[in-house]
Amino acid sequence: MRRLHAAAAAALLALAAGAALAEDETPALKSPGWSFDGIFGTFDRAALQHGFQIYSEVCSNCHSMSLLRYRDLAALGYSDDEIKAIAAQKQVTAGPNDQGEMFQRAAQPADNFVPPFPNEQANRAAHNGALPPDLSLIIKQRDGGADYCYSLLTGFKAAPADFKLGDGMNYDDYFPGHQIAMPQPLQDDSVAYADKAPAPLSQEAHDVCTFLTWASEPTLEARKQTGAKVMLFLLVMSVVLYGAKRKIWAEVHSGHA
Amino acid sequence: MAAPSSQKQNALVRWIDHRLPVFAFMQHELYDYPTPRNLSYWWNFGSLAGIMLVIMMVTGIVLAMQYTPHVDYAFNSVERIMRDVEWGWLIRYIHMNGASFFFAVVYIHLFRGLYFGSYKEPRELLWMLGVVILVLMMATAFMGYVLPWGQMSYWGATVITNLFSAIPGVGQDIVTWLWGGFAVGNPTLNRFFSLHYLLPFIIVGVVLLHLIALHQHGSNNPLGIDRKGPQDSIPFHPYYTIKDMFGLSVFLVIYAAFVFYVPNLLGNVQNYIPANPLQTPPEIVPEWYLLPYYAILRSIPSKLLGVCAMFGAIVTLFLLPWLDTSRVRSAFFRPVYKWVFWLLVADCLMLGYVGAHRPEGINIVLGRIGTFYYFLHFYVLFPLIGKFERPLPLPTSISAAVLAKHGGGAAPASAAMEKH
Questions:
Q1: What is the ipTM of this complex?
Q2: Residue pair B320/B127 in contact by the 8 Å Cβ criterion
Q3: Phi and psi (nearest 5°) for A4?
Q4: CA neighbours closer than 13 Å in the CB half-sphere of residue A136
Q5: Which runs of consecutive H residues, i.e. helices, occur in B65-185?
């Protein structure tokens, strides 16, 4: 993955500097700043809904999100009726019924997101052998997380003249090896946001990455909010215990124990 | 908070104690238990390790209620814990980061023993039982890491079990036997789950032996000299109960910061990708706490010798009490060893760094130097330094040294003491 500058590799120096010495032709990831960063971070609900719209209209043509259920969308601010309507746009195979036959029915809130293809082979067959990965955990599956996905989505460009691109492949600044089977999925105004917000590429990438981060870790907000309380409690407890310790030990230190 | 004497105990306690002396035992081992008065904060890590073991077992038992040990369901059952089980994300992050913090605590505990000579007569068996616990912990942690059945789970299990194929003649048969098949698969996952649940209870057993051995002669101390009378000791309660609780609280602040704010920092992103036997991850690396051993393994070109060196690195720890020829315990009074100790710490950190990176270029050289030094340290420097080093004069007693406000070179933790 990474090569070390041979020259800079005095043993302890290398130890101290660690990965900083690593050389890589991939540029540093773009970091647009996220509402969920920091110890009090939360998900921007508008960005989540925008992101879900992008997923539904663009990404979901090829990428599944098998770990999510339609009911999870309540966290994005959708009402129960809206969620029922969103789910009902998809058909799932259910059954068998009393006659022993499988049948199609509209998806319900308790169903997992319906995948675009019935199985991996069908998905590969439609994509020249490449498999678009499931996006349920994509942010947790990549070093750099949301920054990486944002950089990738905004990092498509024409291959440099000296770069030999495979047949049907595309060039991306941030993809390992730069050759990616996915063509650039988002351009300016790829979607028309339901709330008429402007949709330049940077905004679309930002919104869909917010949505994907939520999908990877829907409990992030609960985690950070619980953390603040737990940290406060532990810090106060530490101070109190330190005082108690000082008091109890006072006589030992003065030599009278 | 005076310890309740047997006269003050109520009738029921006295009735029970007369037949089953649990209260007398607790009184003797937890309340009155005489402890050196000069223990520094480096001595907190033993009790912290015990508490980590309890935290890991409690969270682990709860996780096992929701986890499914089957190759088709394991990954998704863990994600279900993260998404749908009430507070499941918290329990799982506590357990996941707990493994790292358990090892961090135990490694500090171990190096404290190395620095202050806690393995020396009469504490050889105490030390060796500690090494047994470390080995059991490694096995438990390794098998636990396999359970989520991510990419690194699968490939880590493949690499580590394959080590046994280095055994001449029967190696491959042993590996097949370990796997329960011809590749890492469902039988492997099932037995790893079973053993991951079992081993902590065995660790508890060895911890009890460790504590019995400890209480036989009591704790070593930063001066490394024996206690000469009651003026050198204080009762465990309240002095060390409060000190341990304060230490625990500070420790929990750091632990909680990881659990709540960077729960995946110590993990590998590859393990959030479901196991795929047809796709090797770009790099197969163990968790940070096993990296130095991994570096030793990879530093030797021969597989068999590499495996021997790796296990040898741990076996060496058992021999420590007899490799060290110095009769002075504490490095405070060992002007040469004091420095060589930090070389070993640096060496282990360097091996950890090498283990995390591909064995190419300078990493190969560093890995070999690190491995060579590790064994040189224990088998050559340890015996020689003990013979030729001239130790500083030892204080006459712990209490004399404490009251003379022993110098700043003392345990960092004695900072609080020095203010008085």
A1: 0.90
A2: yes
A3: -95, 145
A4: 22
A5: 74-83, 88-115, 124-146, 151-162, 171-179
Residues 146-185 of A with CB under 8 A from B: 176
Cα B320 to Cα B332: distance, rounded to the nearest angstrom: 19
* Alpha-carbon span B67 to B70, nearest angstrom: 9
Q: What percent of chain B has pLDDT over 70?
A: 94
> Among residues A72, A254, A66, A39, which one has the least CA distance to residue B84?
A72
DSSP states of B373-420: HHHHIIIIIHHHHHHH--PPPPPS-HHHHHHTT--TTS-GGGHHHHT-
CB nearest to A3's CB, from B259, B270, B361: B361
Judged by DSSP in three states, A22 sits in strand
Return the number of other C-beta atoms located less than 10 Å from residue B398's C-beta. Answer: 24
Report the residue of chain A nearest B241, measured CA to CA: A245
- Between the alpha carbon of residue B323 and those of residues B119, B219, B337, B356, B369, the distances in Å are 11, 21, 13, 30, 21
Q: Scan for tokens 């030390």, then name that residue.
A: B127
One CATH from 3.40.50.300, 1.20.1050.10, 3.30.70.270, 1.10.760.10 for A42-68+112-224: 1.10.760.10
Rounded to 10 degrees, what is the CA torsion of B219, B225, B231, B237?
A: -10
Q: How many residues in total does chain A contain?
A: 257
> If DSSP codes are grouped into helix, strand and coil, which group holds residue A171?
strand
Question: Which residue of B89, B151, B374 is the best one to mutate when testing the A interface, meaning the one whose CB has the most A CBs within 10 A?
Answer: B89
Pick the residue from chain A with its C-alpha nearest to B235.
A257
And the tokens for A229?
């309380």
Q: Alpha-carbon distance A255 to A4, whole Å?
A: 56
B208: CB partners within 8 A, 6+ apart: none
- List the 31-90 stretch of B: residues with Cβ below 8 A of A: 37, 76, 79, 82-83, 89-90
Q: Which two tokens stand for residue A185?
A: 């999925």
In whole numbers, what is the pLDDT of chain A averaged over residues?
90
Per DSSP, the three-state class of B361 is coil
Spatial separation of the C-alpha atoms in residues A108 and A113, rounded to whole Å: 10
**Residue B266 tokens, joined:** 């110590």
- pLDDT for the residue B405: 63
Residue A215: exposure state from Cβ atoms within 10 A (0-12, 13-18, ≥19): buried
pLDDT above 70 (res A178): yes
User: Residue B242: what residue type?
Assistant: I
| H helical segments located in chain A | 11-17, 45-57, 80-88, 120-126, 138-141, 145-153, 201-216, 220-253
Closest chain B residue by Cα to residue A214: B83
Q: Which helix (H) or strand (E) segment is B291 a member of?
A: helix B291-299
Looking at the annotation, which residues of B are catalytic? 215, 219, 243-244, 287
Question: Is the Cβ pair B90, A237 closer than 8 Å?
Answer: no
Q: What band does A255 get if pLDDT is binned at 50, 70 and 90?
A: low
* B10 Cβ under 8 Å from any chain A Cβ: no
Looking up tokens 């712990």 gives: B398
Identify whether B4 is preceded by a cis peptide bond (ω within 30 of 0): no
Q: How far is residue B33's CA from residue B173's CA, in Å, rounded to a whole number?
A: 51
* List of residues 6+ apart from A250 with CB closer than 8 A: B420
Residue A248 sits at the chain B interface (C-beta within 8 Å): yes
- For chain A, the domains span 42-68+112-224
Task: State percent of chain B over pLDDT 90.
Answer: 92
Residue B125 has pLDDT above 70, yes or no: yes
Note whether A178 and A171 are within 8 A (CB). yes
Stated length of chain B: 420
Tokens for B72, please give them.
Answer: 């088709």
